[in-house]
Automatic annotation (TrEMBL):
GO terms for biological process: DNA transposition. Keywords: DNA recombination, DNA-binding, Transposable element, Transposition. One of its GO terms (molecular function) is DNA binding. Required for the transposition of the insertion element. PANTHER family: MUTATOR FAMILY TRANSPOSASE, TRANSPOSASE FOR INSERTION SEQUENCE ELEMENT IS1081. The keyword Nucleotide-binding does not apply. It comes from the Bacteria. This is Mutator family transposase. InterPro entries: Transposase_mutator. Signal peptide: none annotated.
Length: 398
């Protein structure tokens, strides 16, 4: 007997053994239901019906499922009308999240179970996630977050045609130093109007007090943020600013300019950083007047992080924390030429956000957990928003 024939025989024997054990469990279930749990019903058995079922050990054909005359019995072996063991849905969702297309997942299922699942069927299975997406996106938020980041990416999204659309992600650090993805917003293009709607959504879900918002230099984003959170500070990402500057200078000058600007964001105090900028300004203004003027115009927003405890400044002067998260999402969608629809995009980002929040909830960020930092941040909240909780309406704020 060759290897293939032996493998086929073993699979058949395994399926037969599994069928026998499942049918034994089903018979014991209905006996217990009729004789032990509900003898008062006067119910009795009413034969069997047969069905197929996909399990982690292979496909079971013509499984004999017992019935009762009153139709009250329901087995716990599988859900009503389910043709799949729960493990299969969980596995399919995990493979989908991991970067496999619906077609690739279908081919994998066919190899392990010997049955064909079309891309549409796989998509329908992953749609169980959509039942949780809406509730997750509308969940109430904590009242206070010390730091809130916003960044985005473009994906090719298929509607009537395939076009680039944005996915905004908002991440916060709460009073205890735990990161959390607060929300994600799929569709449309980057604009100050869409950003303002995002901040209004956060406010409506209970986020009333923010110490500092951190974002890149999207035009109008600062105004949109401060329109909804007028008492918060706004920090423009220093790293984005550096990237935008360095591409505009000659190669031979890049190392020196980077070194001169390093003091602007790595000094021990605001006054020292300001002095470093003055040196940068005097040294390079004649050669790169536009670039120096750009830093001069944005300097106030670039140095906001110096207001905050030194132990957490690393987490405020840049959006790197949220950029790493978005990078992981981008890696998931990169193999796809385009995302099939809005629902598919929602599922992908939700699965990542849910996993990240669960992981981050177990550990506070460096510096934020220090008692001195907590005391300072608490004082800053009190200075900005008062010692008591205020429930002013969004309309009053706007």
């Amino acid at each position: 007997m060759n290897r293939e024939s032996l493998a086929a025989q073993l699979e058949t024997q395994m399926a037969d053994l599994l069928k026998q054990k499942l049918e034994l469990v089903l018979r014991e279930e209905i006996r217990n239901f009729l004789e032990v749990e509900h003898p008062e019903l006067g119910d009795s058995r009413n034969g069997y019906y047969t069905r197929g079922m996909d399990t982690r050990f292979g496909r079971v054909e013509e499984l004999r499922v017992p019935r009762d005359r009153m139709g009250e019995f329901q087995t716990s072996v599988f859900e009503p009308y389910s043709r799949r063991d729960a493990w299969l849905e969980e596995t399919i969702i995990a493979m989908y999240k991991g970067g496999m297309s619906t077609r690739e997942v279908g081919q994998f299922v066919e190899r392990i179970l010997g049955v064909q699942y079309s891309p549409t069927t796989i998509s329908n299975i992953t749609n169980v996630v959509l039942q949780d997406v809406d509730a997750w996106r509308k969940r109430p938020l904590k009242r206070r977050y010390s730091v809130v980041y916003m960044d985005g990416m473009y994906v090719s999204l298929k509607r009537d045609t395939v076009e680039n659309e944005s996915i905004y992600v908002v991440m916060g650090i709460d009073e205890n130093g735990h990161r959390e993805i607060l929300g994600y917003y799929v569709g449309g293009n980057e604009s100050a109007t869409s950003c303002r709607e995002i901040f209004m959504d956060l406010r409506a879900r209970g986020l009333e007090e923010i110490l500092v918002g951190v974002a890149d230099g999207l035009s109008g984003l600062k105004d949109a943020f401060l329109a909804v959170y007028p008492k918060a500070d706004f920090q423009r990402c220093v790293v984005h600013k550096l990237r935008n500057t360095i591409v505009k200078v000659r190669a031979k000058d890049k190392p020196a300019i980077l070194e001169d600007l390093k003091g602007v964001y790595s000094s021990a105090a605001y006054e020292e950083a300001l002095g470093c900028f003055k040196l940068f300004e005097s040294k390079w203004n004649a050669k790169y007047p536009r670039e120096v003027q750009s830093w001069r115009d944005d300097l106030t927003d670039l140095l906001v992080f110096y207001k905050y405890p030194e132990a957490i400044r690393y987490a405020i002067y840049t959006t790197n924390a949220i950029e790493r998260t978005i990078k992981e999402i981008r890696k998931r969608v990169k193999p796809m030429n385009s995302i099939a629809n809005l629902e598919a995009a929602e599922k992908i980002v939700y699965l990542f956000a849910k996993d990240y929040n669960e992981k981050w909830s177990k550990r506070a960020l460096r510096g934020f957990a220090e008692e001195g930092t907590k005391v300072e941040l608490s004082k800053m909240f009190t200075n900005k928003y008062g010692a008591t909780v205020r429930h002013e309406s969004l309309n009053d704020t706007l």
